[in-house]
Design brief:
The chain is α+β, with helices and mostly antiparallel strands and 91 residues long. It has helices at 37-45, 52-63, 67-83; strands at 7-10, 15-18, 21-25, 32-34, 50-51, 87-90. It has a three-stranded antiparallel beta sheet with strand order 5-1-6. Strands 2-3-4 form a three-stranded antiparallel beta sheet, covered by helices on one side.
Length: 91
Amino acid sequence: MLSSKTKIIRKKVPWQELDEKIVILSPVTRMSHELNETSSWIWKEIQQEISFEKLLGQLIENFEVDDVVAHQDLQEVLMIFQEKGLIEIND
């Protein structure tokens, strides 16, 4: 589980924005991944190191979603990014 102090660091991986969606090439799987609108927004927001707490607050503000749902969804997206070798998560 990610804490409020957890730092999210995006790795330098090839990616491109196409038709308002982002396509990323995973260095681990060597597969491309097309992100949905919310995941694309998250990807753009983690260009610089950011805390989970700050990213969560921005997500709630920008998408006007319930705090609990936003927390669960953000954690899920970040875990997928980590599994694909796209980000580092530091506690």
